[in-house]
Amino acid sequence: MKGITTRLRAAVVAVMLGLGIGLAAAxxxxxxxxxxxxxxPPAASEQMLFNYLQGDVRGRVTIPDQRAxxxxxxxxxxxxxxxxxxxxxxxxxxxxGMLVVLAIFYFVRGTIRISAGPSGRTIQRFNxxxxxxxxxxxxxxxxxxxxxxxxxxxxxLLLPILGPEAFTAWSELGKVAHNFLxxxxxxxxxxxxxxxxxxxxxxxxxxxxFAQGGGxxxxxxxxxxxxxAGQKIIFWTVVLGGAAIAVTGYIMMFPxxxxxxxxxxxxxxxxxHGIISLxxxxxxxxxxxxxxxxxxxxxxxxGSGRVDLNWAKEHHSxxxxxxxxxxxxxxxxxxxxxxxxx
Amino acid sequence: MARMxxxxxxxxxxxxxxxxxxxxxxxxxxxxxxRRRVVTINDGKPxxxxxxxxxxxxxxxxxxxxxxxxxxxxxxxxxxxxxxxLCIGCxxxxxxxxxxxxxxxxxxxxxxxxxxxxxxxxxxxxxADSTPAEYAKYGSNRLAEGKLPICAEMCSTKALLAGDGDIxxxxxxxxxxxRGYGSGAWGWRTAYKDMVAG
Lengths: 342, 198
Known about the structure:
The complex is a heterodimer of chains A (342) and B (198). Chain A is mostly helical. Chain A has 13 helices and 4 strands. The radius of gyration of chain A is 30 Å and the shape is elongated. Chain B has a single domain, classed as Alpha-Beta Plaits, CATH 3.30.70. Chain B has helices at 18-27, 62-66, 92-96, 132-138, 150-153, 165-179, 188-192; strands at 4-8, 36-41, 49-54, 72-74, 80-82, 160-164. In chain B, the strands form 3 sheets. A two-stranded antiparallel ribbon of chain B has the order 1-6. Chain B has a two-stranded antiparallel sheet with strand order 2-3. The chains are: A mainly alpha (342), B alpha+beta (198). At the A-B interface, helix 1, helix 3, strand 1, strand 2 and helix 4 of A face strand 2, strand 3, helix 2, helix 3 and helix 6 of B.
């Protein structure tokens, strides 16, 4: 009974408030006034200003912080909804979905073996500089990914386990690591772009690779140069995605200073940073899988830098031909001397 | 239980900024941090109005929703408070807040903002009520002493109302019907969703 009375009272108050606005608005929206000055700002009522300004209500403040002049920015509620649900769903589906796909692929296909078996002879695939650039990016990306996922999902997944104090200490550490490791990550992205861009330009061979499903389905081994079409996709995803993450990340690190000088810009930067990062993490999971568990002999390329010759012939046939014809591998070692039947 | 809210009657606010000063003084708020501010709309034009704005202690508060470390909590009175011990200074609450309430001691480059500070509705923080530790972090706890926020209590024109939402809405509605005009409960639609103002 008391509940009903309270609700009734609230309803009456609401109606009265609405009535008040109606009364207030009437003299200011007189037709002749509108006809005379169509561009003039409407009289101050919240809803009228929302309609006029389409979103934020701004005014003047006497304090130095001019951002405080924004009285109300209703978009904060949209940012709240995005952060609480949209982004978590996108991230969950992208990363969780990728893990499921990879697990199914592993159970169906297993580790892709070298068809002819290891030859025992190796060929140099990536030199020291290439591997440095790769691992600089990879190691920082893993730390950035984990600390970033902690900001997105830690509250739901880790906070109940660690407790508030420990979770804050870990998140604070993660925030510092995330901020400062962004610099070596950006350097790694730039290095990879410079080193590998010439090998990652699209070519006619890529069409054939796609036509044969990249050899992922069936046992075909489509020809490829240094990088096949799938690797080129990874390259451009990492370079472009990484650049986008870096730009939005630096905007967040130096708030209200570069392109995003208002709250809306900062919201957009955070949203882009989150979405691109989550999708990139999902894609990189596939990259990690095929470079380790998913394919025999693949890890050596970035491990020791030398791959088995049979693996190279199967996966990068055109590249092996290039290397063998006049490449370094075909030349005799500097210390070798002709002997016997030579 | 009361549901505490702020309501600024823009037709009474004379932009004296006494609420801002009283707030700074009551809580010894550091330089550069404004828990409350007065914004003037349509300055110098017909329909000019001033509105005193601080944290509105929203229903389903956006700051609390986006906080990565879950440092916010809502009291039984509907006041949104936070723990400075748990805050990591990420700044997300400022981007989510429709009212620009969260404040930080420093600029924020390299995530160095420091612990967030905002209006506490004069209700302190998670520390024990009216202790020096609570005062140092959040300012005085008037609610624990049975008093309402200082900004509203000392408002000379009684433009700024603080108290139970139903009661202050009723006071405002009576004013509007008596004088025949009013510009609405600023921010209530965004903060509480339950009250339509216009």
